[in-house]
Amino acid sequence: MVEKVQAPIEALLQEGRTFPPPDEFRQRANINDPGVYEEAERDPEGFWARWAEQLHWFRKWERVLEWNPPWAKWFVGGKTNLAYNCLDRHLTGARKNKAAILWEGEPGEVRILTYWELYRQVCKFANVLKSLGVKKGDRVTIYMPMVPELPIAMLACARIGAVHSVVFGGFSSDALRDRIQDAQAKVLVTAEGGWRRGNIVPLKRNADEALKECPSIEHVVVFHRGCYEQSQVPMTPGRDLWWHELMAQAPLECPAEEMDAEDMLYILYTSGTTGKPKGVVHTTGGYMVGVYATTKWVFDLKEEDTYWCTADIGWVTGHSYIVYGPLLCGTTTVMYEGSPDWPERDRWWALVERHGVNILYTAPTAIRTFMRWGEEWPARHDLSSLRLLGSVGEPINPEAWVWYWRNIGGGRCPVVDTWWQTETGMIMITPLPGITVCKPGSATRPFPGVAADVVDDAGNSVPAGAGGYLVLKRPWPAMMRTIYGDPDRYVQQYWSRYPGIYFTGDGAKRDEDGYFWIVGRIDDVVNVAGHRIGTMEVESALVDHPSVAEAAVIGRSDEVKGQALWAFVTIKEGVDRHQGLEQELREHVARKIGGIARPDRIIFAAELPKTRSGKIMRRLLRDIAEGRALGDTTTLQDPAVVQTLREQYEHLEG
Ligand code: PRX
Questions:
Q1: Half-sphere exposure for 604 (CA within 13 Å, toward CB)
Q2: Of 8-12, 137-141, 442-446, 574-578, which gets the smallest average pLDDT?
Q3: Cα 539 to ligand 1 centre (Å)
């Protein structure tokens, strides 16, 4: 058993307590020379070029960067292939027979794919896609559980130059439909189901529903996960095909397509401030280099490491740090299909012990859930294999940071709190574990070569300690290139507030040591349990219900989830506000978007507070929900509305 660090969390959090890298860690770290920051700063393009040189290119680039704000091209003229770099590059040495993917299903099966085996499967599936008419540039939507066939499908796309669009398996059929339509995908890859907390997620059923309105889809490839008998799965003749039947016939060899560095690699949809999700576009060369560099330095990967990122591949964290980053580094990457409390609340810790996991990358919401479940669950297992811990997705509160450091890391593992976004593609603000002295709650400093700042409305840097908007002042290789099919929105959303400067949508402050403290979103995006949800999307789902006249959705602070969704709803005149209506509305949202968007609370209001121009004042709703004094109310059309709401809310809470 691991020796426990006994000091109470409060004592560890005392003002000024910082966490330098342990000596042993620092000495062995991939990077422990603080000079890298200055070196990258002197010549950022040279810095990124040196990383690129470590990878395989069919043809070398002519220029590292072509920057016509806000349009960037990285490694201009270079030809490469991401799947080739993740697989073929490792096959000539000892990594050929090393575990690439170590997978555990929720029911308990374990599958290990070596680099060679993964290479074979990817080539075969690439041939399957080709046989279905998929060509370079075509879009393939992937809607799968966390099984190895998901990264196999992604890598197969990358191998032939098809663009993948992975849709998180927790999304509803409507959400899937919208994403397929936006991307005009030709093929859908799915499974009949997946396991989650002992239940079946009915992916194929959702897909069938979605496909009623997706004429672009020519074929559906269905992986048989084993949740249902094959004969129980309705297959549409001519359209639907079984994965295993296609694979049995597929040729073994498939050359990797020579891709231009700027050819599209994938689309990943994320929530913004409108009702319509944005298809964030990433391209090949720059994304590869940025993800490779950050994986190697932030996670300090060693040849013998077993690395586990607990995200779902349906989110960017999974794309960059379960699939592409670790495989570029030749690492063993762990995938787990199911829920952390199945069959018991120690499933993750059993998994760490069983597979000897060395590096664990997870989200604050998970850590806070474990805190609530109690330290006895991790204490049942030998976690001494762990040597580095990571956090991502939302601000980590210092209590959770210290709990993680102490109860999971046994007080010996550095904790890297990594700030980044779907749009940035790669980690942007983070400690380097062999260099950085950590302060719990701070993502610390920009990765070498990255230029971040905190600015005021006019775009001026704010002094130490003051709050402002987090911006990025220099292009970086893994940056998004555009929004699929909507370049205007790309310019408008990210680059118009301060010309030539990327606007993150996050609020932050920087302390006297230059450390960044991310406060959270300052736009109409809510971060629920590390999932990004646009309040407008939830509002649209609510007003889609026949009883609802108007809805305003806000994020309210929540002990475990970081933020929870609260909806203020007015119902149509003449509609009966029956007992079950609240539940009905919550389920309606889950059906329209997915369970992650189901509001925690619905508050029925006679009227919503509005400005004289008719804009809903969500700021005041947030004040009410948080139970704090109301901010400026002078622009309110009818001050009585908030008063009534507040009384009603207090009555409810009382
Ligand atoms: O608000 C920030 C928060 O998550 C947002 C990005 O969400 P998404 O694109 O879904 O990507 C999540 C995983 C990279 C950011 O705008 N966020 C992410 N990481 C952190 C964070 N907030 C504070 N600290 C972090 N480490």
A1: 16
A2: 8-12
A3: 22
Q: Which of 392, 396, 397 to mutate to test the pocket of ligand 1 (most atoms within 8 A of CB)?
A: 392
Give the residue extent of every domain in the chain.
Answer: 9-81+265-521, 82-257, 527-653
Q: Find out whether the beta carbon of 547 lies less than 6 Å from any atom of ligand 1.
A: no
Q: Is 525 exposed, middle or buried (0-12, 13-18, 19+ CB in 10 A)?
A: buried
443: helix, coil or strand?
Answer: coil
55 token code pair: 């990878």
Q: For ligand 1, atom 23, name the residue with the nearest CA.
A: 395
Q: Which residues pair with 223 in a beta bridge?
A: 191
> According to CATH, what is the number of the domain 9-81+265-521?
3.40.50.12780
Proportion of the chain in helix, strand, coil states, percent, rounded to 5: 35, 25, 40
- The pTM of the full predicted model, rounded to 2 decimals, is 0.95
pLDDT digits 0-9 by tens, 578-589 = 889 999 999 999
Q: Which CATH number fits domain 82-257: 3.40.50.1370, 3.40.50.12780, 3.40.50.261, 3.40.50.360?
A: 3.40.50.12780
Convert the pLDDT of each residue in 217-255 to its tens digit: 999 999 999 999 999 999 999 999 999 999 999 999 999
What does the pLDDT read at residue 1?
41
Token couple for 245: 């039947």
What single string gives the DSSP state of each residue in 177-210? Answer: HHHHHHHT-SEEEEES-EEETTEEE-HHHHHHHH
